[in-house]
Amino acid sequence: MEKYKHKSLRREIKSDHHVKKNISCYIISETSLGIQCAEQLLKEKHQLLGIISTHNRTQQWAKTHNIAFFSSIEDFQRINPYKTFDYLFSIVNSKIIKKDVLEYPRYFAINYHDAPLPEYAGVHATSWAILNNESTHGISWHIMSSVVDGGNILKQVLFPINNDETALSLN
Question: Checking phi first, is residue 17 left (phi over 0); if not, alpha (psi -120 to 50) or beta?
Answer without folding.
Answer: left
